[in-house]
Design goal:
By secondary structure, the chain is α/β, with parallel strands linked by helices. Helix content is 34%, strand content 26%. The chain folds into three domains: 234 residues, P-loop containing nucleotide triphosphate hydrolases (Rossmann fold, 3-Layer(aba) Sandwich), CATH 3.40.50.300; 165 residues, P-loop containing nucleotide triphosphate hydrolases (Rossmann fold); 81 residues, no CATH class. Pfam families: ABC_tran.
């Protein structure tokens, strides 16, 4: 018997039909993949199922009975758990409080903190995650926060579990832990919906698949074993997806680095970090969750205290105070891994998001009074139009709120604002998290072209194939220290072995 069904579901936003008669069936004891490009309607469907959005048509059925959820709390109470693509942790709460938020244990009318620690530790152990339940979630990395989100969903012991890009910010070893848990849930009769742009994961753990394109179902509940990867991609994009081929690009290894770190230590725990990025070079930072890669980037931007060592930009020692100082005085941009909270202003228009870094440059004056300076609408509109076209950002108009865009388009907006500022050094943190295969290839081509045009790029990614595709050199970090560096041979098997050996400090094999 089908455990959960969505029948002919519709959802309309101003100017956009996000869902157009979508059908979905989830069986007990199975893992069902929901696939589609960014903007196809996957996250919208999940938000309809969990009560965040009211459907404009169609119906939902649980155990054959029609249901209607007015809030995520109602859907959770009915046994539907969810891990959303964007974070939904409460910053003022601890790890344990967030995990058990739906059903906080109490004793004599008061919150039982001993029980919270015990119960939260149980669900963290399911993911082999060593975190203190009393730790404030504000101290977590993005990857750790993602794993806490998963533990939170597991804690309500859902009959239906919806996973929206659950492995987007975690490493392959952490994903394997999650897949073991998913396997156990499947054996217990749970119905799991798995949304991912990583097709290798989909084929590893899923039984059936539904594919959305432009808000409509183009395949409904097909056995995944009957399909090849190319056939799935064809269904998603409407044509066979061609393998990415990047043109030759060379780096002048004798050029003076645009960005150089020497013996850098930080308050977060980095110790003696040496690193250099030359014009036209892509240097990758790779490591497991907690290695300190994103924290190092933030220290370079003045967001964490540097306690020792030196940062040099174009050969001169500098002390960067904040992100504005990094951009205005040193032409350093930062594409954050956390696009929802740091990358874009969700409640502002696409136009404002792109132009915000160059308002000073665009400002015109009225007469001789500096207080009457303003940003000409035409100049801003022309600039925004150029980057929307250049990056292929799919929007209804520049006035559209950034928060209504798909994840891939939000990431393009985040990148556009730094390109508009004419940065010369670009730090890109997890550029393709939650992005479909075609958009990912477009990002890879764009990053490659930026380097070819002379930008110095420091690339942080947990996606090893992405790292090997793009980076000229891979710097491996563990425990906030650099463990070694590998010049990229572009041979995946050789590179992955060398990188993983550095991560785990394995000795090199005898020659």
């Amino acid at each position: 018997m089908t455990l959960f069904e969505a029948e002919r579901v519709e959802k309309v936003f101003p100017g956009v039909r996000a869902l157009d008669g979508v059908n979905l069936s989830l069986e007990p004891g199975s893992v069902h993949a929901l696939l589609g490009e960014n903007g196809a309607g996957k996250s919208t469907l999940i938000k309809v199922i969990t009560g965040l959005y009211r459907p404009d048509g169609g119906r939902l059925l649980l155990d054959g009975q029609q249901v209607s959820f007015g809030s995520p709390h109602e859907s959770a109470s009915a046994g539907i758990g969810v891990v959303h693509q964007e974070r939904n942790l409460i910053p003022g709460f601890t790890v344990g409080e967030n995990i058990l938020l739906q059903q906080l244990p109490t004793s004599r009318g008061l919150v039982d903190r001993t029980a919270i620690r015990s119960e939260a530790a149980r669900w963290l152990a399911e993911l082999d995650l060593e975190l203190d339940p009393d730790l404030p979630v504000t101290e977590l990395s993005v990857a750790q926060a993602q794993l806490v989100e998963i533990a939170k969903a597991l804690s309500i012991e859902s009959r239906v579990l919806l996973l929206d890009e659950p492995t987007a910010s975690i490493t392959p070893s952490e994903a394997e832990r999650l897949f073991r848990v998913v396997g156990k849930l499947k054996d217990q009769g749970c119905a799991v919906l798995f949304v991912s742009h990583k097709l290798e994961e989909v084929f590893e753990i899923c039984d059936t698949v539904t594919v959305l394109r432009d808000g409509a179902s183009v395949l409904e509940g097909g056995p995944l074993s009957d399909l090849t990867r190319d056939e799935v991609v064809d269904l998603m994009v409407g044509r066979v997806h061609e393998a990415l081929v990047l043109p030759p690009r060379t780096v002048d290894t004798t050029a003076e680095p645009l960005l150089e770190l020497s013996g850098l230590s930080t308050a977060t725990g980095h110790d003696g970090v040496d690193l250099a990025v030359r014009p036209g070079e892509i240097v990758g930072l790779y490591g497991l969750v907690g290695a300190g890669r994103s924290e190092l980037a933030k220290a370079l931007l003045g967001l964490d205290r540097i306690t020792a060592g030196e940062v040099r930009v174009r050969g001169a020692a500098v002390r960067i105070r904040n992100v504005r100082d990094a951009l205005k005085n040193h032409k350093i941009g930062y594409v954050s891994e956390n696009r929802k909270e740091e990358g874009v202003f969700l409640e502002q228009s696409v136009g404002r998001n792109i132009a915000v870094t160059v308002w000073d440059r665009l400002r015109a004056g009225i007469g001789r009074l500096p207080v009457l300076r303003y940003v000409p609408k035409r100049a801003e509109a022309d600039l925004v139009s150029d980057y929307v076209e250049h990056l292929g950002i799919r929007i209804a108009s520049p006035a559209q709120l950034a928060g209504t865009l798909s994840g891939g388009n939000q990431q393009k907006v985040s990148l556009a604002k730094w390109l508009a500022a004419q940065t010369e050094i670009l730090i890109i943190d997890e550029p393709t998290v939650g992005i479909d295969v075609r958009t990912k290839d477009a990002f890879h081509t764009l990053i490659w072209d930026l380097a070819a045009n002379g930008l110095a790029i420091l690339l942080i990614t947990s996606d090893l194939p992405e790292m090997i595709t793009l980076a000229d050199r891979v710097v491996v970090m563990r425990d906030h220290r650099v463990r070694g560096e590998v010049v990229n041979s572009r041979d995946y098997d050789t590179m992955s072995q060398r990188v993983i050996r550095l991560i785990h400090a394995e000795p090199a094999p005898a020659a």
